[in-house]
Design a protein that fits this description.
Layout (H helix, E strand, L loop, with lengths): L2 E6 L1 H4 L1 H6 L5 E2 L6 H8 L6 E6 L5 E14 L9 E16 H6 L7 H4 L5 E4 L1 H10 L5
Parallel strand pairs: 1-3
Antiparallel strand pairs: 1-6, 2-5, 3-4, 4-5
């Protein structure tokens, strides 16, 4: 099972919005970057991802699960753009800030640290374990 990170602006669609969607989840729409789109195309049902608040807060606040694989993005008429559907799994007991990730041993190569503009990115198994521990969860 692969691991991922999804960035969202909390004032547009934050963790409370994702939680409110319940088990039906929500399409992860609006991605207009080929690398991020290709990451979504690689996702499988059951994969997990961190939910990251970008711009405001700059912190990992929760975990989502992929509940539908990549399909055409309903917010675009352009067939190049796809999206997955995700549902909230759990909030992190402690949010994990970007600044904390930047100084945490083992996260030096994490995409979040090195490619802060990529909105959907892979997370290695070791990075997942470290961030979960930082956030108060067993990873």
């Amino acid at each position: 099972m692969a691991k991922w990170l999804f960035k969202s602006e909390p004032d547009v669609f934050g963790w409370p919005h994702q939680l409110a969607k319940g088990d039906s989840g929500e399409e992860w729409t609006g991605v207009r970057n080929y690398q991020a789109r290709n990451n979504m195309r690689a996702m499988k049902v059951g994969d997990l991802g961190f939910f990251y608040h970008s711009n405001i807060g700059k912190e990992i606040v929760g975990i989502v699960e992929i509940i539908r694989e990549s399909a055409p993005d309903s917010t675009s008429d352009d067939p190049r753009w796809d999206c997955v559907m995700v549902k909230a799994v759990t909030a992190l007991p402690r949010a994990v800030s970007l600044e904390a990730c930047k100084v945490e041993p083992g996260l030096e190569a994490m995409a979040l640290v090195n490619n802060t503009r990529l909105s959907v990115q892979p997370v290695t198994a070791e990075e997942w374990r470290i961030v979960c521990r930082m956030g108060g969860l067993e990873g």
